[in-house]
Design goal:
The complex is a heterodimer of chains A (112) and B (113). Chain A is mainly β and 112 residues long. Chain A is built from no helices and 11 strands. In chain A, the strands form 2 sheets. In chain A, strands 2, 4, 5, 9, 10 and 11 form a 6-stranded mixed beta sheet that branches. Chain A is globular and about 40 Å long. Chain B has no helices and 10 strands. Classes of the chains: A mainly beta (112), B mainly beta (113). The interface between A and B is medium-sized, with 26 and 27 residues.
C-alpha cells in the first residue's frame, strides 16, 4: 500500500533553478529515504534521514524531516538537465521484513 | 558484477503462461527484496529474504506468485498462469544485512498479452 504522497506530481523548471519536492507519510518511521529513477531504469538511492534527524545535506541535495507533521522535503539546488527524473520518497517503519513503502513520485523536468 | 542484476530485462508472454524472473544481488548482501511497479499501484513491496531464512509471503499479490532464494544468493520470482494485471516492472533490491539503503536492479518489464 502507498504510504507517502509526493507533491507536486510533476515539476518543470529552468536549468540552474532550485527544485523542491515534498513528501507526506502516515505511520511512524525509522527512517525516510529519497530515490531517483531515470526512465526505464531502477531506483538510485540519494539520501537517508533518520527519524531523530531534522536536516541532512549531500552535495546539491538537502533533505528535511518533520516527524510531527509526518513530512519531508527534498531540495535540489542549481539544477542540471541530468537531474531530469522521477523522485520517490520511501519510508522504513520496522525491520527489513516490511520492505520500503514508496510514495507515488514527483516527475522533475529540467529545461536546458 | 558491481550492482544488482536482473534478467530478463524484458519479457512478453501470453496470458496463462508461467514466467520466471531472476535477481542476482550484490555480492555479500544478505537481504534481498522484490517490488512491483505499475502505473495504477505505484511501487509495491512484495517479499523480503534475509539470508536463508524463510520469507514472509503475505505481501505477494496472490497465490500465483512465489519466490525462492537458493543458497542465500540468487532469487527467482515465479508467476504462474499469468494475467494481464500482472503486467508491470518487477524490481529487485539488495542491502547489507537488512541495513538501508537498498540497491536496486534495473528491473524486468513484464508484458502479458
Amino acid at each position: 500500500s502507498q504510504q507517502g504522497e509526493e507533491d507536486p506530481q510533476a515539476l518543470s523548471i529552468q536549468e540552474g533553478e532550485n527544485a523542491t519536492m515534498n513528501c507526506s507519510y502516515k505511520t511512524s518511521i525509522n527512517n525516510l529515504q529519497w530515490y531517483r529513477q531515470n526512465s526505464g531504469r531502477g531506483l538510485v538511492h540519494l539520501i537517508l534521514i533518520r527519524s531523530n534527524e531534522r536536516e541532512k545535506h549531500s552535495g546539491r541535495l538537502r533533505v528535511t524531516l518533520d516527524t510531527s507533521k509526518k513530512s519531508s522535503s527534498l531540495l535540489i539546488t542549481a539544477s542540471r538537465a541530468a537531474d531530469t527524473a522521477s523522485y520517490f520518497c520511501a519510508t522504513a517503519s520496522g525491520g527489513g521484513a516490511d520492505g520500503l513503502t514508496f510514495g507515488k513520485g514527483t516527475h522533475l523536468i529540467i529545461q536546458p | 558484477g558491481a550492482g544488482v542484476s536482473q534478467s530478463p530485462s524484458n519479457k512478453v508472454t501470453e496470458k496463462g503462461k508461467d514466467v520466471e524472473l531472476r535477481c542476482d544481488p550484490i555480492s555479500g548482501h544478505t537481504a534481498l527484496y522484490w517490488y512491483r511497479q505499475s502505473l495504477g499501484q505505484g511501487l509495491e513491496f512484495l517479499i523480503y529474504f534475509q539470508g536463508n531464512s524463510a520469507p514472509d509471503k503475505s505481501g505477494l499479490p496472490s497465490d500465483r506468485f512465489s519466490a525462492e532464494r537458493t543458497g542465500g544468493s540468487v532469487s527467482t520470482l515465479t508467476i504462474q498462469r499469468t494475467q494481464q494485471e500482472d503486467s508491470a516492472v518487477y524490481l529487485c533490491a539488495s542491502s547489507f544485512n537488512g541495513v538501508e539503503p537498498q540497491h536496486f536492479g534495473d528491473g524486468t518489464r513484464l508484458s502479458i498479452l
